[in-house]
């Protein structure tokens, strides 16, 4: 993905924020909007009524370079607007009063950055922009089979809609992820949006890292009715763990140049 800092630097930054060196599985926080029902061990969030009061948070703060990913499981045609996704320094553990909407209400409280996910695949737009972006989405960075993050090399297949290509960001099956990438010096970060395996780039820039840890925040708004967390992290096999270590130390897409048997190269490139 072209992170501006190496894994060691990002790991050190995570340590300063009191975060674990290895990401764990994700759940939704018990503090959420009044129209949200959590189920399946708090990994799914359903908006039971209206189109408001549906803000949800990740149960724990993210670490630098960690992707929080959700899949849309149910929509309600005819509703206006779609899901909002982003980051917040507001701590859901405090049980602070929740506004009705992520945009503009939660953002107006300061310390929150959300984007509205819109229908065309190239339009996730920064909240401050006031209008959708135009143009084609950027080409996937790095190796076509995986995205590099601070602690794990994530297969793009895990970030893409199970139904394959042609799924719009607001459709059932669409997978949407958010992460933050620290800038040089570790004081500021950029928020990246991942849409069905493709990094849309920095949709929010210069987010301060000293204020508080960053939780993922999702507003299950408009046509979006049910979302589920896609678990990208957790216990792996020894082989998969070794692959992660090797890939984190490669520069660019150079698996083919390693002095290894073809079977091992295929495994490193997620071909087997």
From TrEMBL:
Gene that specifies this protein: NEURL2_1
Entry's Gene Ontology BP terms: intracellular signal transduction
A molecular function GO annotation: ubiquitin protein ligase activity
Residue ranges annotated for the NHR domain, each copy included: 25-232
Domain SOCS box residue range list: 235-272
SUPFAM superfamilies attached to this UniProt entry: SOCS box-like
InterPro entries cross-referenced by the UniProt entry: B30.2/SPRY_sf (IPR043136), Neuralized (IPR037962), NHR_dom (IPR006573), SOCS_box (IPR001496), SOCS_box-like_dom_sf (IPR036036)
Coiled coil regions, renumbered to chain: none
Top-level lineage group: Eukaryota
Protein name (record): Neuralized-like protein 2
PANTHER family: NEURALIZED, NEURALIZED-LIKE PROTEIN 2
